[in-house]
Specification:
Blueprint (H helix, E strand, L loop, with lengths): L1 H19 L22 E13 L4 E15 L2 E14 L5 E13 L8 E14 L5 E14 L4 E12 L9 E14 L4
Antiparallel strand pairs: 1-2, 1-8, 2-3, 3-4, 4-5, 5-6, 6-7, 7-8
């Protein structure tokens, strides 16, 4: 009888333990962050992973990767640098690889957002080049975007903008176009 009671107690303990360790979680889709990630002294790193664009002059399609890093000089205002690595498919010509680097300024709008999201505007001016020629020239960008915070320090972003460059020698003397980008940013707290 002792063995049977001990066996029932042991099986009951296993059943209780197996139920107690079952943890069901739902992936987090948003976090109330307020102004915490965009405070003065914080850092941001990340970038656009899939920039798609269309050039008006040469009827070309491009895709780019844009890593970026910035520092918040004031609440909601970040300055930093971004690199551009991309591929351009040109009608009836050789395809080309392009590259560039540009400092940027990003401003997060205080209104029109929720505790888990922010609208922003970003401008950049830098240099760019392409595999079609040896020229390195001016590159400009004006973008607006939306950052949705999925955690206290990570935001998914969508960016829409207008870009201008004189580096695409294969397309003529300049290239302008619209671009759409999807990416993410990681917001790191600065020293206090």
């Amino acid at each position: 009888m002792k063995k049977f009671t001990f066996l029932l107690a042991l099986l009951g303990g296993f059943a209780f333990t197996s139920q107690a360790q079952r943890i069901e979680t739902v992936p987090q889709t948003s976090a109330d962050v307020g102004l915490t990630p965009i405070k003065q002294g914080n850092w941001m790193v990340g970038g656009s992973l899939g920039n798609l664009g269309y050039s008006f002059e040469g009827e070309a399609f491009n895709i780019q990767l844009q890593p970026r890093a910035g520092y918040f000089v004031s609440d909601g205002i970040a300055v930093g640098a971004q690199a551009t690595l991309g591929f351009t498919a040109v009608n009836d010509r050789d395809n080309e690889w392009n590259y560039g680097i540009a400092p940027f300024v990003r401003y997060y709008f205080p209104g029109g957002a929720t505790a888990s999201s922010r609208f922003f505007a970003q401008g950049d001016i830098g240099i760019a080049g392409s595999s079609a020629g040896n020229d390195v020239s001016l590159a400009l960008g004006a973008n607006v975007g939306y950052a949705h915070f999925i955690t206290q320090s990570v935001a998914l972003e969508a960016i829409l903008g207008y870009n201008y460059t004189k580096a695409n020698v294969n397309l003529g003397d300049k290239a302008t176009g619209l671009g759409v980008g999807l990416g993410f940013q990681i917001y790191l707290p600065g020293r206090r």
